[in-house]
């Protein structure tokens, strides 16, 4: 631990060498931006390939006798249908509390040959809570292994697949569809890779041993399309893509339906229930939630930041902004927030209170920038 009580990822020294501005984030000293700045990093990722250090995220593996056994154990905590997760595929879900609020959101992947294993990636700020929760109620036949010796890199952007293909030409990476996951070798490095990310672009997340992460990152940065990208651009990219960030669009008072995540709850779980907060979730699915997460487009050029109050045409409070800023690819300010159901339709006029003054805005469809995922 450093004097500031923060930890460092295996790429910390490389970030410093590359001139990153470092700041605390989720208990880690993380790169916020490099010398080119957030705007340039954002646009580089949209046009070529950006390399993100996401090693602060929590990685773990659930192990048991069979897939059905491990999946059933995980379904105690989340509303996704994990039993139907096919080999070589990944699925997004949430850990829920007893009231249906989101404890954390996470990715679950099943390797193509792993019958009794599931890989988990959870948020950095919640990983201690998540892992303690899992260990508190797993059956004796299933165990959680924290993968603290692993780093996690994300290569995002339209050139990401070409770059990785050069490093693993026999790996078949170009044929992987969105949300596929499997082991890949990059020479001497054995990695686990998924075709996913947090930018709305095509890309990959690469889990590999921490002691090999810096060397691999340098190999990627040596490719002409690749530039290092900090957390500032990661946030503007995910905001344009309309993706939730825990602690902003998600917390323990918000359920997945009002967050617009009903697509992540498959048919069997909707009907059977059997997960924390199922009654609230099923009621919201049947009747619609009282509030909804929406996109917001302020008029003019002034952005609205997190916490800004949202009011209707009569000036009555109807919600708050959860994330906001300037969208470099959109060329305008954008935001997300929660509003009551009556004001959630695209095109609805409302105002955002910025510096004690109402800023005219409208509800806008999400995402703000089209997704570019590689579909089947």
Number of strands: 20
CATH architecture of the domain at 7-56 and 149-240: 2-Layer Sandwich
What is the terminal separation in angstroms?
Answer: 44 Å
Question: Mean pLDDT across all residues, rounded?
Answer: 97
The helix/strand class is alpha+beta
Largest sheet: 6 strands, mixed
- Multimeric organization: single chain
Rg: 21 Å
Question: What distinguishing features does this structure have?
Answer:
about 375 residues, alpha+beta, Elongation Factor Tu (Ef-tu), domain 3, six-stranded mixed sheet, six-stranded antiparallel barrel, 20 strands, about 35% strand, globular
Commentary on this structure:
This protein has 376 residues and is an alpha+beta fold. Among the domains are: 7-56 and 149-240, Probable tRNA modification gtpase trme, domain 1 (Gyrase A, domain 2, 2-Layer Sandwich); 290-376, Aminomethyltransferase beta-barrel domains (Elongation Factor Tu (Ef-tu), domain 3, Beta Barrel), CATH 2.40.30.110. It contains nine helices and 20 strands. It has helices spanning 12-17, 38-47, 67-74, 127-136, 160-167, 213-221, 231-240, 267-272, 278-287, and strands at 7-8, 21-25, 28-33, 49-53, 58-63, 89-96, 102-110, 117-122, 143-146, 150-156, 181-186, 189-194, 203-209, 226-228, 291-298, 309-311, 317-327, 332-340, 349-354, 357-364. The strands form four sheets. A six-stranded mixed β-sheet has the order 11-12-13-10-4-14. β6 and β7 (102-110) form a beta hairpin. The termini are far apart. The model has no long low-confidence stretch (mean pLDDT 97).
């Amino acid at each position: 631990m450093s004097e500031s009580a923060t930890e460092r990822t295996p790429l910390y020294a490389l970030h410093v060498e590359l001139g990153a501005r470092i700041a605390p984030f989720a208990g880690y000293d993380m790169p916020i931006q490099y010398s080119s700045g957030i705007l340039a990093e954002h646009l580089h990722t949209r046009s070529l390939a950006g390399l993100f250090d996401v090693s602060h995220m929590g990685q773990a593996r659930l192990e048991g006798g069979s897939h059905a056994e491990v999946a059933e154990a995980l379904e105690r905590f989340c509303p996704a249908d994990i039993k139907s997760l096919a080999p070589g595929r990944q699925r997004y879900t949430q850990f829920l509390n007893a009231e249906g609020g989101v404890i954390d959101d996470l990715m679950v992947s099943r390797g193509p040959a792993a019958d009794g294993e599931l890989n988990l990636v959870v948020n950095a700020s919640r990983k201690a809570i998540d892992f303690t929760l899992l260990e508190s109620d797993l059956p004796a036949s299933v165990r959680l292994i924290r993968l603290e010796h692993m780093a996690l890199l994300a290569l995002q952007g339209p050139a990401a697949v070409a770059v990785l293909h050069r490093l693993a030409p026999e790996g078949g990476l170009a044929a992987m569809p969105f949300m596929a996951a499997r082991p890949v070798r990059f020479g001497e490095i054995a990695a686990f890779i998924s075709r996913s990310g947090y930018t709305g672009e095509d890309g990959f997340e690469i889990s590999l041993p921490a002691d090999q992460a810096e060397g691999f990152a340098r190999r990627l940065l040596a490719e002409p399309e690749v530039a290092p990208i900090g957390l500032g651009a990661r946030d503007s990219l995910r905001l344009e893509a309309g993706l939730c960030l825990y602690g902003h669009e998600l917390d323990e008072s918000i359920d997945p339906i009002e967050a617009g995540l009903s697509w992540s709850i498959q048919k069997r779980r909707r009907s059977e229930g059997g997960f924390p907060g199922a009654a609230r979730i099923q009621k919201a699915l049947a009747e619609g939630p009282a509030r909804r997460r929406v996109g917001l487009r302020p008029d003019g050029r002034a952005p609205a930041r997190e916490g800004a109050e949202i009011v209707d045409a009569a000036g009555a409070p109807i919600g708050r902004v959860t994330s906001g800023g300037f969208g470099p690819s959109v060329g305008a300010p954008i935001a997300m927030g929660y509003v009551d159901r009556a004001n959630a339709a695209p095109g609805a006029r409302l105002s955002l209170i910025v510096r004690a003054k109402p800023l005219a805005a409208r509800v806008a469809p999400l995402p703000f920038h089209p997704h570019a995922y590689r579909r089947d």
